[in-house]
TrEMBL record, chain A:
Protein name: Glycosyltransferase family 34 protein
GO BP term, example: protein N-linked glycosylation
An MF annotation (GO) of this entry: glycosyltransferase activity
Transmembrane segments: 128-146
Family named by the database record: Belongs to the glycosyltransferase 34 family.
UniProt region (Disordered), positions on chain: 1-38
Organism domain of life: Eukaryota
Organism: Patellaria atrata CBS 101060
Pfam annotation, one family: Glyco_transf_34
Classification via InterPro entries: Glyco_trans_34 (IPR008630), Nucleotide-diphossugar_trans (IPR029044)
UniProtKB/TrEMBL annotation, chain B:
Glycosyltransferase listed as a keyword: yes
Source taxonomy: Eukaryota, Fungi, Dikarya, Ascomycota, Pezizomycotina
Biological process annotations from GO: protein N-linked glycosylation
One Gene Ontology cellular component annotation held by this UniProt entry: mannan polymerase complex
KW Transferase (keyword) present: yes
A Pfam family that the UniProt record links to this protein: Glyco_transf_34
Organism (species): Patellaria atrata CBS 101060
Protein name: Glycosyltransferase family 34 protein
């Protein structure tokens, strides 16, 4: 039993010197330690020494030492039979010497220990610098893992994504004139999903417009001219956006890692050309040379300023192609969209104009000089590649058809509803896009499975031979 | 063969440009009056610093040369006062009405109307991108091939009603401001006949007169102009 039976520290005491409270020291009945204490006591006159003196004087200890409990009587027997741990003194908290600190218990004395210790020391010394570097890395990771990077891309001051609106013409026909079966639904789902993912990644707005046939206009053929009206409505809906990218439904963005800014708009002068003589499938006479026109209208490239480009289209083998084009918000664009459809022109020409707005635009480009200085063209494969079958069955025209090795941006399966398999094509291009844009882990897995497969095949071939 | 007169105005100086209708690429089957549109474009090319282009048919006389276009018509406040708003653009019963909230300095096209339609032989265009757009749109071959009954006048009335971007820059002003009639043929244009002090007198319809001819009608006014210049007025 501990000496401190009584609760009061004055008599029971003993906590000032931990050596005294342990009943294991000198449990022979002599409770006073007599001389050497394990921990030196700061003050000489302590309770213990006082008790010891009184015990000496008295001749017997001042409390009963007999029969103080089971553990007191049997402690030595119990403690000697308990398992012993090689708990060296130097490891205990109380030990002053601390011989084991800073040493690797298992690796003690080996070379690895020396290296690790040195490394640890270096790290400790450079802890502030390393903390800064670690902080930066964590911020970097945090930027990309959280939606922060998307906010950055979308904001108008940093990434500029909110300045772009993608207009996707969905629900073509709406099932009014023709049945819209599971294939059509699947094509629409794939196309919409592809554009949604792209717009979300780069912070663009996506406007999915319904192109179903509605009896909105007095003349039924006018219904297919909705591109112009839709573009006007969308421009009003997104007043902060600058560029509007029209996409037909049968298109697929093959490389979602290209942003529009980096792919086209950051260097518009290099990515577009204004002189249609560069590639002129319609043989439109250019530049205009009537003497009554001003210099800008007669120049082949307008005023040569990038800011004056308000409309970017591409040409395929047969003329202008409005499956994928860009329109900028400007007064010029407002006027173009206003004058594009006119009943006089429509009445005379709608039977000849198979491609409707496209042909009307070609006619306007040809005949109205105010249009030319503000229209630019981009190479077809920049954002409007064709699959084999459109503009050539073999798909080998390097100006027109999709080239996998060049990683073209977008495929426009134009005219697939006449004679080709739209669903098959979009499926094929989706798989191709997924394969081309695998992340490194998937590439590694595919490499392993491919090499196993080829090893198996070559083994089978050898077996067949022998 | 007729010639029309184009007056360019820049500050206080003005020059006159007489285009020849044969200079412009118009098909043989199209009436020659369409030539006035490329002619205005031509004038804009030849006089790159002129702001206002005042188109005037040859059968018209500027009776009061004291009046300048800037002050008499095109000045912002004056134009806003003169503008006739919220009336059918093409009388008598067009559903399209002129806009009522247009600012004077945004107007690029000033024209008058009589009771039958727009008066297309006397109008003012301000130089600019809109002017190029308007003239090129008006001159689109599809309008010419449509064979409007009154040629470019009907085409003008058509595009002004169908295209809001054109109507947004158009101002109608009272007819006597720049196209007073010498005689009211149809009887409906009361109050639009020429009075002393009017800017321009238009001899529209003088070639259809049975009893007299254009020279006959214009003669007294020529005399008046000559005497005016003699007296140094």
């Amino acid at each position: 039993m501990s000496l401190s039976r009584s609760p009061s520290p004055q008599r029971g005491g003993g906590w000032s010197s931990p050596g005294l409270t342990t009943p294991y020291n000198g449990s022979s009945g002599r409770s006073s330690p007599m001389g050497n204490h394990s921990n030196g006591i700061a003050n000489n006159i302590t309770w213990a020494s006082a008790q010891a003196r009184s015990a000496e004087i008295k001749g017997y200890p001042s409390f009963s030492t007999r029969n103080q409990g089971f553990f007191h009587r049997h402690l030595r027997k119990i403690s000697s039979s308990l398992p012993q741990f090689n708990h060296t003194d130097s490891r205990s908290y109380a030990e002053k010497e601390k011989l084991g600190r800073g040493r690797w218990p298992l690796l003690h004395g080996t070379k690895i220990e020396a290296i690790l210790t040195r490394v640890g020391r270096i790290i400790w010394r450079m802890r502030l610098r390393l903390a800064i570097v670690l902080g930066i890395i964590l911020l970097w990771i945090g930027f990309y893992v959280t939606p922060l990077h998307r906010m950055y891309r979308r904001s108008p001051w940093f990434g500029g994504g909110s300045k772009f609106v993608i207009i996707l013409a969905a629900n073509q026909g709406g099932g009014v004139m023709e049945w819209k079966g599971p294939r059509e639904w699947a094509i629409e789902r794939d196309s919409v999903r592809n554009k949604k993912k792209y717009a979300k990644k780069w912070g663009y707005d996506l406007e999915i417009v319904d192109m179903s046939t509605k009896k909105r206009y007095a003349h039924e053929w006018r219904e297919s001219w909705e591109k112009v009206d839709t573009l006007r409505i969308t421009m009003r809906k997104y007043p902060d956006a600058e560029w509007f990218w029209w996409l037909d439904l049968n298109t697929f963005i093959m490389e979602p890692s290209y942003s529009l800014q980096s792919h086209m708009f950051n260097n518009l002068a290099k990515n577009t050309y204004r002189d249609i003589n560069h590639y002129n499938p319609l043989h439109i006479p250019h530049p205009l040379n009537d003497t009554y026109l001003d210099l800008e209208s007669r120049s082949p490239t307008g005023d040569n300023k990038t800011e004056s480009i308000n409309f970017i289209i591409t040409q395929d083998c047969g003329g202008f192609n409005l499956g994928s084009f860009f329109a900028k918000r400007s007064t010029w664009t407002d006027r173009l969209l206003d004058i594009w459809w006119d009943p006089v022109g429509y009445e005379q020409k709608h039977m000849q104009w198979e491609h409707k707005e496209q042909d009307a635009l070609e006619s306007m480009y040809r005949n109205q000089p105010w249009i030319r200085p503000h229209v630019a063209f981009f190479e077809q494969r920049k954002a409007n590649s064709f699959p084999p079958g459109a503009c050539g069955d073999r798909g080998d025209d390097p100006k027109i058809h999709y080239q996998e090795k060049d990683r073209d941006f977008l495929v426009n399966m134009a005219g697939c509803e006449w004679g080709r398999d739209c669903w098959g094509e979009i499926y094929k291009y989706r798989q191709l896009s997924n394969r081309l844009n695998r992340n490194p882990w998937e590439k590694f897995k595919d490499w392993i499975s491919d090499s196993i497969r080829s090893a198996r095949q070559s083994r089978r071939k050898e077996e067949k031979k022998s | 063969m007729w010639q029309s007169r184009r007056t360019g105005k820049n500050m206080r100086r003005s020059t006159t440009f007489f285009p020849n209708e044969n200079d412009y690429p118009i098909e043989k089957t199209t009436p020659k009056s369409w030539a006035r549109i490329p002619a205005i474009r031509h004038a804009m090319t030849l006089y790159p610093y002129t702001t206002y282009f005042f188109y005037l048919d040859y059968r018209a006389l500027i009776m009061n040369p004291e009046l300048s276009i800037e002050e008499h018509i095109m000045d912002t406040k004056r134009l806003e006062d003169l503008m006739i708003t919220d009336v059918p653009v093409v009388p008598p019963d067009s559903v399209i009405k002129t806009f009522s909230h247009l600012k004077g300095d945004r107007i690029d096209f000033v024209i008058t109307q009589d009771k039958e339609g727009l008066v297309h032989n006397s109008f003012i265009i301000r130089r600019g991108e809109w002017a190029k757009y308007f003239l090129d749109a008006w001159f689109d071959p599809l309008y010419r091939s449509y064979n409007f009954q009154k040629g470019e006048q009907h085409a003008l009335e058509h595009i002004v009603q169908w295209h809001g971007t054109i109507l947004a820059k158009l101002a109608l002003i009272p007819q006597r401001t720049m196209a007073s009639l010498y005689k009211d043929h149809s009887g409906k244009n009361v109050g639009a006949t020429y009075k002393e002090g009017d800017f321009v007198i238009s001899f529209e319809g003088c070639d259809k007169e049975k009893t007299s001819s254009c020279e006959h009608e214009m003669a007294p006014f020529f005399k008046a102009l000559e005497s005016q210049s003699e007296t140094g007025g």
